[in-house]
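Thread: quick sanity check before group meeting

JM: Hey all, I'm pulling together slides for Thursday and realized we never actually wrote out the predicted structure for the chain we discussed last week. Dropping the sequence here so it's in one place. If anyone has concerns about the input, flag it before I start.
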Amino acid sequence: MEIDQWKAQIERERREKDRFLGQGWQSPIPPEDRAEFRGLDYYLPDPHLRFEIELHEHKDKRAMRMAYTKGEERDFIQWGEFRFRIGDEECVLQAYKSDAEEEQLFIPFRDATSGQETYGAGRYLDLNAARNRTADAKWILDLNGAYNPWCVYSENYTCPFVPRENWLAVPVRAGEKNYPKSSEFTVAWK
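JM (edit): ok, ran it. Output follows.
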């Protein structure tokens, strides 16, 4: 896909999401806040933060429990890892599945923008095999698609905290920025 087409697709997806958040009956934004909603704040699309790379699938897939914002925990499988560079920094992000049979990868992450320019508890990426694979079986890891969890918009939702292994030291200036009405969670990490 050419850069102009890629940027146009991102902008179209962002408009659709903003329309859903502001008007959709299933929007996580409370109805009383939707009238004031004018769209999310996004970083400009950056082609340097889009990677077509291999998923290094773990031979021994580790089951783990991921903590959620309301105190519960849920089971995930640490499926594999993506290795890439941002600037001069080597980065590794673990990809998780909630079930071995599913075709989707869940990649929660924090970075140097978390708590300042972006949501403090981190952002997420969802990769679907049908949509995010190339013809040569590489994954498209596009950090421009990083999104805020629904608990940013309302305390009615619970969202997984980002495991420490997915805390990046570099800034990822791609995807969604912080939502002004978000409430920050205080996390005690061991």
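AS: nice. Residues 184-190 have pLDDT under 50 and may be disordered. The two ends are 43 Å apart (CA to CA).
JM: adding both to the slides.
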